[in-house]
Amino acid sequence: IGSSSAETDSQTEWTDVQKKIIPWKNSTSSLDLEMVFQDRAAKLGKSNSRLIVVASLIDKPTNLGGLCRTSEIFGASALVVGSLHYIQDKQFQHLSVSAEQWLPLVEVKPSQLVDYLQQKKTEGYTIIGVEQTAKSFDLTEYCFPEKSLLLLGNEHEGIPANLIHHLDVCVEIPQQGIIRSLNVHVSGALLIWEYTRQQVIKQKQ
C-alpha cells in the first residue's frame, strides 16, 4: 500500500505542464490563425507601454534578434536599430522567431542618434543609458518614468562618450561575480523587464 500511495503522490505532484502555444504547431485552423495574426497586426504600434528600446549601436544580428524578441514579448512600443537590413539576416531571424512582424522597428543610424535623442527629449522621454558610470543608478533603486527611452551600448565599446552627455540618467545592473559585464541582450532584457514590472504590471494590479 505504501508503494502505491507513493506512486499516487508522485503522479499528483507533477501535474503542471507547459502552456506555450506555437501557432504553426497548434491544431487551430488556418482561417482562425489568420484572424489571430490580423488582430495582432491591427494592434501593432498600439502597445500601452511607452518604452522605446534603442539598439542602433549594436551590430551583432544575434543580439538584435534576441532584443527584438524580448521587446515584442514585453510590449515595448518600438525597437530602434542601426539598419533595417539586419532583419533579413538568418541569425537575427533565428533569435527573433518572427517578433519583427509584430513589433514596430525604426531605423536610426548611429550618426543620427544625437538628433534622435534630442527629438525624443522634446517629446517628453527620459533618455536612459545602460552603462556603468560614476553617477549611475542601481537598477534595483531606479524608478522608470512612463515615457522611457532605453539606449543600449555597443558590444565592445559600450555607449560612446559623446552620447553619454545626452543621457538624462545611467542605470547599471548590480553584479556579484568577477566578470564585470553582461551580454548586451541580457542587460537590455533585464531593464525591459523592470520597466514592464513597474509601469505595466503594477498598473494592472
Automatic annotation (TrEMBL):
Reaction equations catalysed: guanosine(18) in tRNA + S-adenosyl-L-methionine = 2'-O-methylguanosine(18) in tRNA + S-adenosyl-L-homocysteine + H(+)
Keyword Methyltransferase: yes
InterPro entries with a match to the protein in the record: Alpha/beta_knot_MTases (IPR029028), SpoU_MeTrfase (IPR001537), TRM3/TARBP1 (IPR045330), Trm3/TARBP1_C (IPR044748), tRNA_m1G_MTases_N (IPR029026)
GO MF term set: RNA binding; tRNA (guanine(18)-2'-O)-methyltransferase activity
Gene3D superfamilies reported for this sequence: 3.40.1280.10
Its EC number(s): 2.1.1.34
The tRNA/rRNA methyltransferase SpoU type domain, residue ranges: 51-192
UniProt entry tagged with the keyword S-adenosyl-L-methionine: yes
Protein keywords: Acetylation, Methyltransferase, RNA-binding, S-adenosyl-L-methionine, Transferase
Entry similarity comment: Belongs to the class IV-like SAM-binding methyltransferase superfamily. RNA methyltransferase TrmH family.
Function: S-adenosyl-L-methionine-dependent 2'-O-ribose methyltransferase that catalyzes the formation of 2'-O-methylguanosine at position 18 (Gm18) in a subset of tRNA. Selectively mediates Gm18 methylation of tRNAGln-TTG/CTG and tRNASer-TGA/GCT. Gm18 modification can enhance the stability of modified tRNAs.
Quaternary state and interactors: Monomer and homodimer.
Name used for this protein in its record: tRNA (guanosine(18)-2'-O)-methyltransferase TARBP1
Source organism of this protein record: Probosciger aterrimus (Palm cockatoo)
Gene behind this protein: Tarbp1
